[in-house]
Specification:
Layout: E1 2-5, E2 13-16, E3 25-28, H1 31-37, H2 42-60, H3 62-69, H4 75-93, H5 98-115, H6 118-124, E4 125-132, E5 138-140, H7 141-148, E6 153-168, E7 171-184, E8 187-202, E9 205-214
Parallel strand pairs: 4-9
Antiparallel strand pairs: 1-2, 2-3, 4-5, 6-7, 7-8, 8-9
Helix pairs in contact: 1-4, 2-3, 2-4, 5-6
């Protein structure tokens, strides 16, 4: 690992992953700077990052800096890394937004479903959870877990797409596409659905209270 230091107030420290030969440089913003950057636009963060790197470049000289970093960094790559640095600074001072939390929980639910993790699914589903599946059948929480905990069902692939989250206070509505492929009792199956999930925050904990899956017309 190799470090670059500057007297810049925004990003005083940069480092590479030497001896790994990767075209990556990371910047660090101290707490006070990070707090200020958290309220600024992405363009502002990029500009401050580039200014710091340009000052380093001038003070050290092109060849010395290139030798130290052992990589050539294009302006485009620097801009992308500056965005990363800015996002990291913001992340240090801002908690996750509601929509980010919900998307993370959706991914957690999907992963638990893939591997048949009953305990995780049980924690994510509200006690009065209800789901409507492709054929119009409905299941309660216990029915859903029993049905999808069936060892004769083997999920080969399940993925979500086009996810959109709408926050309404302590309620979140998620819509998206869903693709699942696997075998049930030895027979192959495949679904390409649209779904809607409704999450509710009770006592600081998000749980899904309702879910609906349907097959788009024409399939």
């Amino acid at each position: 690992m190799s470090f670059l230091f500057s007297h810049d107030e925004w990003f005083p420290t940069w480092w590479t992953r030497m001896p790994e030969k990767l075209p990556i440089i990371r910047g660090w913003a101290p707490f006070r700077s990070g707090e200020t950057l958290s309220g600024k636009s992405r363009e502002f963060v990029i500009a401050r990052s580039l200014e710091t790197l340009q000052l380093l470049h001038k003070s050290m000289g092109r060849e010395k800096m290139r030798t130290l970093m052992k990589t050539r960094i294009s302006l485009t790559l620097v801009a992308l890394l500056a965005v990363w640095a800015g996002d990291s600074a913001v992340a240090q001072t801002k908690p996750e937004t509601g929509s980010v939390i919900i998307l993370r929980l959706e991914a957690k639910w999907n992963a638990a479903y893939d591997r048949g993790d009953i305990a995780t699914m049980n924690s994510l589903l509200a006690d009065d959870f209800i789901i409507t599946v492709e054929d119009g059948s409905t299941f309660s929480k216990s029915g859903y877990i029993a049905h999808y905990g069936d060892t004769t069902v083997h999920v080969e692939n399940s993925e979500m797409s086009d996810l959109k989250v709408r926050m309404h206070g302590k309620t979140a509505v998620v819509t998206g596409g869903y693709h699942e492929k696997g075998t049930s009792k030895g027979k192959p199956y495949e679904y390409r659905d649209r779904f809607t999930d409704v999450w509710m925050n009770g006592n600081g904990t998000w749980q899904v209270i309702a879910s609906h899956y349907s097959i788009p017309a024409g399939q």
